[in-house]
Amino acid sequence: MEAPRTPLGPAELFTRTFALWWSNFGALTKTALIVAFPLSVVSFAIIALAFPSELFRVDLDPSADPYAMYENVDLVLLGLGYLLLVLIGALAMALLLGGVLQQLGDATVGRAPQTGSAFRLAWAKSGSFVVTYLLLVAAFIAISIPLLIPALWLGVGWITAYSLLIWIPLAWLAIGWIAAFPILAFEGTGGWAALSRSFELVRGRWWATFGAVLLVSLVLGVAAIVLYIPYVVVLFTGGGAMTAMAASAVIGFVVTVLFYPALASLIASVYFDLRLRKRGVVPTPEGETGFGWEQIYAVPERT
């Protein structure tokens, strides 16, 4: 048996991410559309009903009280709106990310991605996806707040320093936990166990993983800036709060449909490469069956 190949570098992971995404673009986009369209409609309705329209205006007096816009707002309704957005967004994320990852799992072993069966599996694991997602959010908040409190007490200069330094621990955690959702989708392990397992896989490969994430993020970030230009134009040309909200909803919909599958392709590529190298398995020649990872991941047949 020949020696295992060396782990992929950032540029190779970047290339593989977009190859995996593009080769399954139709199926992944269809899955994203099914989730993103109702999510965008419901989110727009919640924002229009519960949020003050002044949030979407740029012609307000900068010297005015920033909290004045909330004087005539039902704070209970606003709080419920925020809560609904978080809960609905978490469930939608679970279905979208879970479904897309299941399809990517099929694609990596050479099977055509199926939308219906992917959604059924994603729904069955949606609770674990939501719990894992909330654990991630809670962990990031738990790290951010203790560092923010002394910065607020020390003054503006320290707040600026905080804004820069907080990215160090957050980036370390984000990269360490990057494989948590693929682990949940493909190994059935969720919650803290998935986060711990992800750290185990990433150990020794943090910088390479960070490099791949940075490259993909730069490309998607530039694309997002271009997509949001119409929203900025509407916002600064007095198009009205409702028009601005509608533009934001439409662009958010497009970003979700295009970028979620791309990000899922990134974390799936990272996960499978880490699994492959950690197990020391030589993949089958690429091009024969998917990306040659079927030796380490026995994807169950879809029904």
Description:
With 303 residues, the chain is mostly helical. The chain has a domain at 14-128 and 203-279. 73% of the residues lie in helices and 0% in strands. It is built from twelve helices and no strands. The chain has helices at residues 10-23, 25-50, 75-108, 115-124, 126-154, 156-165, 167-176, 180-187, 191-202, 206-227, 229-236, 241-279. The radius of gyration is 21 Å and the shape is globular. The two termini are 35 Å apart.
Layout of secondary structure:
Elements (H helix, E strand, L loop, with lengths): L9 H14 L1 H26 L24 H34 L6 H10 L1 H29 L1 H10 L1 H10 L3 H8 L3 H12 L3 H22 L1 H8 L4 H39 L24
What does the overall shape look like?
A: globular
Note the beta-strand portion.
Answer: under 5%
Gyration radius, rounded: 21 Å
The secondary-structure class comes to mainly alpha
What about the largest sheet?
none
Terminal Cα separation, in Å?
35 Å
**Which segments are poorly predicted (pLDDT under 50) over 5 or more consecutive residues?**
280-303
Number of strands: 0
List the total number of helices: 12
- Bin the helical content: over 70%
Average pLDDT rating: 77
**SSE succession:** HHHHHHHHHHHH
